[in-house]
Amino acid sequence: MPTLLRGARHAVEATQTVLVGHELPVYRASYSPDGKRIVTASLDKTARVWDAETGRQIAVLEGHEMALYSAAFSPPDGAHIVTVGADDTARVWDAKTGAQEAVLRHPTVSKGRPTLPTAGAS
Fold first, then answer.
1. Which is deepest, 63, 82, 101, 112, by most CB within 10 Å?
2. What is the DSSP letter of 88?
3. Where do the H-state alpha helices sit in the chain?
């Protein structure tokens, strides 16, 4: 029987689905803005995209050289996914095709909170 989750605005029915595919633990999971997909970031160096209703794996995002700490869909439309890894990179992916579009390198990226230099900093 589904459980009712009480949110700030209303109660929703919740069901449990097991997402099978990662080889090591998942560090983070995020829903797409429309709630139809989930992206997971794993210690196995991959992010995976899942159908939120069925649990079916849609894509595997590979390219990081070390564990992933975070993955999220871009607002407001979820057209892109950004992943952050222990390899000091953030990567931008096309959420429909799974194609990697950009690699951003910076030593603070792997801290999980990317920062930009302040004006005038060298």
1. 82
2. S
3. none
